[in-house]
Specification:
Elements: E1 10-17, H1 24-34, E2 40-48, H2 53-72, E3 78-83, H3 87-101, E4 106-110, H4 115-120, H5 124-134, E5 138-141, H6 144-153, E6 161-163, E7 183-188, E8 193-194, E9 210-211, H7 214-223, H8 226-230, E10 232-237, H9 242-251, E11 258-261, H10 266-275, E12 278-281, H11 290-297, E13 302-304, E14 321-322, H12 328-340, H13 342-355, H14 361-378
Parallel strand pairs: 1-2, 1-3, 3-4, 4-5, 5-6, 7-10, 7-12, 10-11, 12-13, 13-14
Antiparallel strand pairs: 8-9
Length: about 375
């Protein structure tokens, strides 16, 4: 434990997505804000939100103003910046530059699932500028593999990079799932590929797209035998190209077996997790998905892919099932295993919940407080 007086207040200025934005980053931000100890005073400032491009430009200008005014008032100890790839990196680079001019302590919190591809496609001068700015900060990353990436590819000091796996809020009571005759599989996340606002610049530069494998899942579900499909339904909830998903489901004559819902608020999500029997996320790229961790906290067996930080949490057939992204046969086989074998479903679900107990939000906030205190001491 860092020798920081717990009676003193650490003042944190946090920049990230608006709390009305749908996504895993927002979930992490809300967990941190809602569970901050009394020794932390966190002021959250949105750099992007729901709305038009003009609205978001104005929102970012207000964020810059808030940064400068808070520094001038000497009302901040730590600047905590959540970032991902594409436009998020551009916006946060401006904030880093301004904060560094005032010699502030800066912690970057990396969330980008496709950051390797994004950074590799930047021109050399862009990579140099970005690496130079990042060296002025400490970093939080979501896994050991992400720490290795940032320290190696951007030549960052590994001692200034901390691994904090995403936190979860563990429910106290688990639903009774034994003996269920009709099963409910769920998918939570973006449906379709996410390219971002910079897709408009594709003629100048190719930007990576994030794909959580939603359409792969629909096609794999269609390959299940009629006997297997008879005993299970699939609920898909998220934002993105819902119309295309519904069209594919109709084309495959699965409208009575697959339901597509819009993004769920936390209360709706927890109700769905409580009634579900398994979680599936066949992503092509990830940081460390909150939806997977939340499902494990609810005791659900998970079918996921070994991308991003997932292999550091999931061991195949011990606390989940791993399938390679885009390999339909593996995804079908994994679903069949959970449909046909109740003992496997229950054992994987129990092991998964046990795996994320140490990731509970209370432990996370202790680690985060120590990280803040350490940065202040070393400054």
């Amino acid at each position: 434990m860092i020798n920081q007086k717990r009676s003193s207040i650490i003042k944190v200025l946090m920049f990230g997505t608006g709390l009305d934005v749908k996504g895993g980053v927002t979930s992490v931000e809300k967990l941190i804000i809602n569970n901050a100890q009394s020794q932390l005073r966190i002021k959250h400032v949105a750099t992007i939100g729901q709305g038009s491009a003009v609205h978001n430009v104005l929102l970012f200008c207000k964020a810059i103003q808030s940064l400068v005014m808070t520094i001038l008032r000497r009302d901040v100890d730590i600047i905590h910046i959540h970032f991902s790839e594409r436009g998020s990196t551009l916006r946060k680079s401006i904030l880093i530059f301004i904060a560094a001019l005032f010699h502030q302590s800066i912690i970057l919190h990396a969330h980008g699932a496709t950051y390797q591809e994004f950074y590799a496609r930047l021109p050399q001068f862009g990579q140099n500028i970005l690496a130079s700015l990042f060296r002025k900060c400490r970093m939080i990353v979501l896994s050991k593999s992400w720490k290795e990436y940032y320290s190696h590819e951007l030549s960052l000091d590994g001692s200034r990079i901390s691994v904090l796996y995403n936190p979860v809020d563990l429910p106290s009571n688990m639903p009774y799932r034994e003996g269920r005759k009709h099963l409910k599989f769920i998918f939570l996340g973006r449906i379709g590929k996410r390219g971002g606002a910079l897709d408009m610049a594709q003629s100048l530069m190719s930007f990576p797209k994030q794909d959580k494998g939603a359409f792969d899942l629909i096609n794999a579900f269609a390959v299940l035998s009629e006997v297997d499909r008879h005993d299970v339904e699939l609920i898909m909830a998220g934002n993105g190209d819902l119309a295309a998903a519904n069209q594919l489901i109709a084309d495959l004559d699965l409208t009575d077996k697959i339901t597509v819902l819009d993004w769920l608020d936390p209360e709706q999500r927890d109700k769905l997790l409580a009634t579900a029997d398994a979680f599936i996320l066949p992503s092509y790229n990830e940081g460390l998905p909150m939806s997977m961790l939340e499902s494990m906290a609810w005791g659900l067996p998970v079918i996921v892919t070994p991308v991003g930080g997932i292999p550091e949490v999931i061991i195949d057939r011990q606390n989940g099932l791993l399938v390679e992204p885009g390999i339909q046969d593996q995804l079908v086989e994994a679903m069949q295993s959970l449909i046909r074998d109740e003992s496997l479903r229950l054992s994987l679900g129990a092991a998964g919940r046990n795996s994320v107990k140490d990731l509970n939000i209370h432990n996370y906030m202790e680690s985060l407080f120590d990280l803040y205190a350490s940065a202040i001491q070393k400054k």
